[in-house]
Specification:
The complex is a heterodimer of chains A (about 350) and B (about 325).
Chain A: H1 3-10, E1 25-38, E2 43-58, E3 63-67, H2 74-81, E4 89-94, E5 97-98, H3 110-116, E6 117-120, H4 134-144, H5 149-162, H6 167-170, H7 180-192, E7 198-202, H8 210-227, E8 230-234, H9 238-244, E9 247-252, E10 255-261, H10 262-267, H11 272-279, H12 320-324, E11 330-331, E12 337-338
Chain B: H1 2-13, E1 19-29, E2 34-45, E3 50-54, H2 61-67, E4 76-84, E5 87-88, H3 94-100, E6 105-108, H4 112-115, H5 122-134, H6 138-151, H7 157-160, H8 170-182, E7 188-192, H9 200-217, E8 220-225, H10 228-234, E9 237-242, E10 245-251, H11 252-257, H12 262-270, H13 309-313, E11 326-327
Parallel strand pairs in B: 3-8, 3-9, 6-7, 7-8
Antiparallel strand pairs in B: 1-2, 1-4, 4-5, 9-10, 10-11
The chains are: A alpha/beta (about 350), B alpha/beta (about 325).
Chain lengths: ~350, ~325
């Protein structure tokens, strides 16, 4: 099929509602805690504060990158965005409509929301049904949503072609007959089968070899342009996030340490954690090897996060004020925000205001 | 840079190599198929040198590493000559092997949780190794265990001696595994992607630790990785593997600046780094060949942008355009 025809066909089924300035997805103060059960009666003995008050917006047509280390809450955030997990508290607004509220009340139901938001996971094998030929896996969701079998199959084959797998050769194959890169292409095709507007990519290239990673990243950029998609791209790989994102969110222990346009985060990082994270990237140039690690120790456990600023236990600039008060996100201009006392003039930190410009 | 070069040169000038691999072949033979994992690898490592084996999954890098310690399963058919510290590893008896492993050669793995024993404390596991290989008393071995935990910079080492592996964080567990490996001051450390599962800020700590330990103890290290950045941080020399062969070998700086073989060239181009934003990534089309039926001639030819008919006619012989560099490609100048 002609690609131009396919593009028209594959446009999101639901049109833009809120207008271009309305964020596609806005989150306010999202929280998710997991109880740790134990003891004699299996009561909650502690709480993992996986996501602890996170607010951000995903703008229409952008790629929002989320970076952070294990335990920072980035995957929990992804699952909350997809509503695979219910938040304990907080608000989610999709294109102006509260998520999980019936249409009569002016909201968008979960069923309708999930049709417009789809996800690609890291483990390409575990996320496909091993007993279904890949064509059927791709056609599965459209059929559940009421698309006739023939049409769903046709759509699956078109999508296979769009992700670079020839339908004649691959449609009837099973997941175990494909390589990792090919399987990830199938997962991407499946995520697009419902013509979503937002695709959440949770470490989509982390398990792939470098030469295949580049192929899949190129594919993701092509599909975004062709189908007018918006991406949330979660990764621990700072180079990949820099390459693909328009804006970046840096998470640490369940909160957002810093967020802003990709150039601001990578060229003028304001939060000491972001700086340390960027400085931890191995350099490909042996002449510029580092001799001191930017940080010592492991990220602390999200069960008992430190008081005040959560990064203070590893921060080289920590002072008394950092233990006393939680730093509020400071506006550094152009949508660049950092949750650090040093970024707020008059916060009581001896280096306060040095960063604000 | 020059320091790295000097160190490599000094190491290379030393008399006997620590590791000498000649024409190593490893096949995995089962009833219904034969996988040719390693297809003629020659490799030398000088004492005190750090060699990175760089390659993607299925390139044979881990199999080569395991062959050095004879850790491969029985289905593996190993041919060729493997010499470590002047001894023929293939000819060792089980008893000799038990002394050799952990004594002369030690290995660290990607996943410390599976490499450490979950039912013994960290202190006991280190002390056990020391007792077994050096025949010292339990008390002396435990004192060594404490020293080792301090050597790998585990904070409050004394308390951590009685910790079980599950009680430690990922970074500390990796350090504990390094301590077990270094217990008997091995001459050769084999590292199989030991930092791949770690977070960015922890990975750089472990890499710097490994480098400083290597310098302090003067060990030879063979470090397997798929990450060019990791190789850039730790290697003196790099050997790039593809489909069971070393396709290029050379000092790390020269290799990263100007690779000779089209495969490492493509790999460098496909690696995302700063400054590529907005540009399309160059990719290596296709996928590595099946190891059951290797293509005739150069195994990379089907994916190579510079391939010509001569490439598939014959297996390219190693060429050396400079004394310390080697590439298996007919387009590379230099004598074969």
């Amino acid at each position: 099929m002609d690609l131009a025809v396919l593009c028209v066909m594959m446009r999101p089924m639901t049109d833009d509602r809120g207008g271009p300035a309305q964020p596609l997805l806005a989150l306010r103060d999202l929280r998710k805690h997991f109880p740790i059960r134990g003891g004699l009666f299996g009561g909650a003995v502690a709480t993992v504060r996986a996501v602890d008050g996170v607010s951000f917006a995903v703008r229409k047509g952008e790629t929002l990158g989320i970076v952070g280390e294990s335990g920072c809450g980035k995957s929990t955030t992804a699952r909350l965005l997809m509503r695979l997990l219910d938040p304990d508290s907080g608000e989610m607004v999709f294109d102006g409509e509260p998520v999980g509220v019936s249409a009569q009340a002016g909201g968008i139901t979960l069923k309708e929301y999930r049709r417009q938001v789809q996800m690609v996971f890291q483990d390409s094998y575990a996320s496909l049904n091993p007993r279904l030929p890949i064509e059927d896996s791709i056609a599965f969701a459209p059929r559940v949503h009421g698309v006739p079998a023939r049409e769903a199959q046709e759509r699956a084959r078109e999508l296979l072609a769009a992700v670079g797998l020839s339908p004649a050769q691959f449609a009837r194959r099973y997941p175990h007959e494909l390589s990792g890169g090919q399987r990830q292409r199938v997962n991407i095709a499946r995520a697009l089968a419902l013509r979503p507007r937002l695709v959440i990519l949770d470490e989509p290239v982390s398990a792939l070899d470098k030469s295949v990673e580049a192929q899949v990243l190129n594919l993701l950029l092509d599909l975004k342009e062709k189908f007018g998609l918006t991406y949330v791209f979660i990764s621990h790989d700072l180079n990949v996030v820099q390459y693909i994102s328009d804006r970046v969110l840096v998470m640490y222990l369940g909160i957002i340490a810093e967020q802003g346009p990709v150039e601001a985060i990578y060229d003028r990082p304001a939060h000491p954690y972001t700086r340390a994270l960027l400085a931890s990237r191995p350099s490909m140039d042996p002449a510029r090897r580092r001799t001191e690690p930017p940080l010592t120790g492991d990220p602390p456990n999200p069960v008992n996060p430190p008081s005040g600023c959560r990064f203070r236990t590893r921060c080289p600039h920590a002072e008394a004020v950092c233990a006393d008060r939680v730093p509020a996100p400071a506006d550094l201009g152009g949508g660049h925000e950092a949750a650090c006392h040093m970024a707020v003039p008059g916060s009581g930190h001896s280096q306060a205001g040095r960063l604000a410009a | 840079m020059s320091e790295v070069m000097d160190r490599a040169a000094v190491a290379a000038a030393g008399a006997a190599p620590l590791v000498r691999l000649r024409d190593l072949h490893v096949r995995f033979v089962t009833r219904d198929r034969t996988v040719h994992a390693v297809n003629g690898v020659d490799m030398d490592l000088a004492p005190g040198e750090v060699l990175c084996i760089l390659g993607e999954s299925g390139s044979g890098k881990s199999v080569t590493l395991r062959a050095l310690m004879r850790l491969l399963p029985r289905t593996a058919k190993v041919e060729g000559r493997i010499e470590v510290a002047g001894r023929d590893v293939q000819a060792m008896t089980e008893r000799e092997l038990a002394d050799f492993r952990g004594g002369d050669v030690a290995m660290i793995f990607q996943e410390p949780m599976t490499a450490l024993d979950p039912v013994f404390t960290i202190g006991r596991q280190i002390a056990e190794t020391v007792e077994r290989h050096e025949g010292v008393s339990r008390r002396a071995a435990e004192a060594r265990a404490l020293e080792l935990l301090e050597l790998v910079q585990i904070p409050s080492a004394k308390r951590r001696l009685s910790a079980y592996p599950h009680e430690l964080s990922g970074g500390l567990r990796q350090r504990a595994m390094i301590a077990v490996a270094l217990a008997c001051r091995p001459k050769l450390l084999l590292a199989d992607e030991p930092t791949t599962a770690l977070d960015a800020t922890v990975q750089i700590q472990v890499l710097l630790l490994l480098r400083s330990l290597q310098e302090q103890m003067g060990m030879g290290v063979i470090f397997v990785t798929h990450d060019l950045g990791v190789a850039g941080e730790i290697a003196d020399r790099v050997a790039v593997m593809y489909a069971g062969k070393v396709v290029e070998e050379g000092p790390v700086g020269a290799m990263m600046r100007a690779p000779l073989h089209p495969y490492p060239k493509g790999l460098l181009g496909a690696t995302v780094h700063a400054g590529l934003r907005g540009r399309r990534l160059t990719t290596i089309p296709g996928a590595p060949p099946s190891l059951e039926t290797l293509p005739a001639g150069c195994a990379f030819a089907p994916r190579c942008p510079e391939a010509e008919p001569a490439c598939t006619a014959d297996d390219p012989a190693p060429r050396r355009p400079a004394p310390d560099r080697m590439a298996r490609c007919i387009k590379v100048p230099g004598r074969a």
